[in-house]
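TICKET #2291
ISSUE: user wants both folds in one file
ATTACHMENT 1:
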Amino acid sequence: MKKTISSYFLTIAGVALFAVGLYFIKTIEDPQGLLRVLPSISFGLGCAIFGHGMGELLIRFTMKNNPAAAKQMEIDKKDERNLAIANRAKAKAYDMIVFMYGALILAFSLMDIDITTLFVLVFAYLFILGYGSYYRVKYFKEM
């Protein structure tokens, strides 16, 4: 019951953010400072939050009206083969992002962008690598 209420709340909040962002995009003629990006961020977040909430509501509606499909979805979610496939896909994506993010940082540094922006990118890159290393050591000790 609690999940359904939060899905309705997310859907309504998404529509509200979408509407506010769209309203400000259409009405503000010469935005200055933060108002240059705030309407677009609100619009994008509203779309994403609405999509997530509506997706949850549609899944719940489908599961409520079709118990056989609900049972099959539950079996598929807990299937070891599907979990192994999902984990392997995540590992491949992580391997790719390490190289892509490194190349992106190199390209930005060669383009002579602002040093603060470059430091933020480098910090995020090192954080991802540290996070991966931490869990590699943790799982190595467990197994």
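ATTACHMENT 2:
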Amino acid sequence: MATTTDASVITLSHVQKHFGSLEVLRDISFSVQSGSVLGIIGPSGSGKSTLLRCICQLESVDGGSICIAGHDMVRDGVYAPRETLLKAALSLGLVFQNFNLFPHFSVLRNITEAQRVVLGRSREEADAVAMELLRKMNLADKAASYPCQLSGGQQQRVSIARALALEPKVLLFDEPTSALDPELTGEILAVIRELAEAKMTMVVVTHEMAFARDTSDYIIFMDRGVIVEQGLPRDVIGNPKEERTQTFLKRFIQN
């Protein structure tokens, strides 16, 4: 399959996804520019998490096209050869809702394992990368700890460090604060803000409306598997045009 060369790091065209007779994604099209942050908002069950899983090849699509970092991962519902799929996958880092750390690995090994297995780095190189990221996350003193010894916020910061260790072109966040107590949410949002300031390309699925408004360059509002409205944060969140968007945002934004 040919590759594209435009400025978009992620491009989706008319993507469809079914679970049996249930259509969970319908005609999804958008692109993400390098160095930008795309915020995806919407009610539970609207297809947001499924969308991220399709981009990361954790789910297959039933139609449409996806291009990742110049690699045509799937075109008109037909997937590329394995080598191209691997290149696309290595361009992405996914941060899950529930951390997904290996409980029997130390914090350090959680960050070094994929570096050694996937990237072929030596132990010394992987350790150096991991420790630098842990310092940036203010967790250098937790390198020898195990996930069960960390707070939820600390575990999520480790999972962000693990994703960054593979040097992806894009970070995808699937509701990164949903499993955290409200008092721990702020520390994760602060990390994502710092990444945004450093021009890390990101796609963030979130229920934190103020965060989405203030951090995103572009917003997509999804409901029932379709994009209802999209545009600049000041328009979609600050002055939504669609009635469904207005109804959804009333629960979050007070006049």
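RESOLUTION: both attachments delivered.
EXTRA DETAIL ON ATTACHMENT 2: Residues 1-5 have pLDDT under 50 and may be disordered.
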